[in-house]
Amino acid sequence: MKQFLGSIFALVTIIVPAHAITVTTPANGAQVTSPFSLVASTGTCDSKPAVSMGYSIDSGSTAIVSISFSATVSAAQGAHILHVKCWGQGVSGVVDLNIIVGSATPASAFTVSSPTPGEAVSSPFALAATAAVCSAHTVTAMGYSLDSSSNTTVVKAQLVQAAIVATSGAHTLHVKAWGANGSSCVTNVSITVGAITAATPVFSPTPGTFTTAQSVTLSDAIAGATIYYTTNGAAPSTSSAIYSGPIRVGKSAVIEAVAIASGYSYSGLARADYVISPPPSYGPVIPPTATASSELQALDTWHFNHDAGTPGAAVGETSLTGTPSLSGNARQFDSTFTGAGGEIFAVSYANDTTSTNFVYDGWVWIESGSSIANLEMDSNQVTANGQTVIYAFQCSGYSNLWEYSGAGGDWVHSSQPCNLSAWQTNVWHHVQISYSRDDSGNVTYQSVWLDGTAQPINATVPSSFALGWQVGVVQTQFQLDGLGASGSITAYLDKLTIYRW
To answer: Are 450 and 467 in contact (CB under 8 A)?
Structure first.
């Protein structure tokens, strides 16, 4: 029996440590913030009853405490060795712990920036979330799942960004994070997924008040979308007109439109109010007995050639077009030039040797980007004596004045301004010119009206020439002179009427 007990005592001696220091916190390898809590205790020290304990940081001084203590310890940020010590009768012991002191960190640093709780989203919707700390541990991975699905998408990072597809209805989005020592955190976000809405149609030009008719276009950001519209202010539906090209708005109108595309719900309602408010119409007085030759721009006998009186060269082309147009049948004039060359477009429209008074009345549109120096609007009449009376009138981009033909066919400056470069492009401008002649071929240029504003000319000049043209021919010309070494011009003429009496 004594031998058996001796064996047991020998075994106890082997397995009992020389000192039994217990450090409850911090753990070896822990990351802490300063100050941190140190909790430790012991009963023995080097196999003898412990009488005191102590602790120090790195090579710092030792604080002496009781054999069971709790202390608050301050330390600089970085890696340290925490020495926890004990003393007994003639003996001592120590436990060394590696710790890292960092800045203060919350128990969890978890942010879901999108979607927000309660948000109504469309599918797919964007998830954006970050997590740096979970339960006081550095996050090593994040993930997400939807509703009760066990399929969690995991990202080995502190940031997750994803496009998530979900059916329509209410859902709970679970955004998760994981850290060391099995720590896990989750944020639940309640959302409602709705059907994807098609983009709302966009109007051009921007709705507003205009003095002339407008060509309104509709567009939509969804490729292949069908746009339905109305022009009477009624709500559009699938039985309304389908947009296929520019809408001419010649008088005030309200346009409403919706877009529909496969896989999308109806777009929002787009509404545009276009107010056409032309300026007061002031113009020449035309007697009721006057003969009106209307819609001359629509005649199919227009011809054209380079004006040899201008430098350089020019090549022209003309055709009828419905856009832009006031009547639905405007004439387009194109000129490509070098060396400031001019192109004459002309048409004969009547036979008249007796009329002595004329009013030129037309609408002109200059396309943006046109390099135009002069815009010339002429009339010619061959009288009974075979003389051709020239009524030549132009807006000069060189003098910025209205000009008329004088003796010998030279241009004469009037006192009235006409700055062609200041004309607004891509809009209609109303031009009216009144002139008359006497039996000797002297022409009096009376006035010009630009968009209803009268500019008196009141100039009389000899303007009769023996050109050998057919007696009685009445003709009008529309000439475009180029500006600069080379370029192109596109202009339109509509509702051209010439009155004579």
So the answer is: no
432 within domain boundaries:
yes
Residue 423 pairs with which residues in a beta bridge?
none
Whether 91 is covered by a domain: the verdict is: yes
Fill in the DSSP letter of residue 11. Answer: H
182 and 82 belong to one structural domain: no
How, if at all, do strands 91-102 and 31-33 pair?
Answer: parallel
Per DSSP, 197 falls in state: B
DSSP state of 232: B
**387 found inside a domain:** yes
Tens-binned pLDDT, residue by residue, of the chain (501 aa)? 334 333 333 333 333 344 589 999 999 988 888 899 999 999 999 889 999 999 999 999 999 999 999 999 999 888 899 999 999 998 999 999 999 887 654 566 788 999 999 888 877 889 999 998 888 788 899 999 999 988 899 988 899 999 998 887 889 999 999 988 888 889 999 998 876 778 899 999 999 999 888 999 999 988 889 999 999 888 999 999 999 999 999 889 999 999 988 767 788 899 999 998 876 656 899 999 999 999 999 999 999 999 999 999 999 999 999 999 999 999 999 999 999 999 999 999 999 999 999 999 999 999 999 999 999 999 999 999 999 999 999 999 999 999 999 877 889 999 999 999 999 999 999 999 999 999 999 999 999 999 989 999 999 999 999 999 999 999 999 999 999 999 999 999 999 999 999
Whether residues 139 and 75 share a domain: the answer is no
Pairing verdict, β 208-210 and 270-276: parallel
Q: Residue 422 belongs to what domain range? A: 291-500
Which amino acid is it at 278? P
Are 256 and 300 in a shared domain? no
Q: Is residue 328 domain-shared with residue 448, that is, in the same domain?
A: yes
Token pair recorded at residue 358: 């004329």
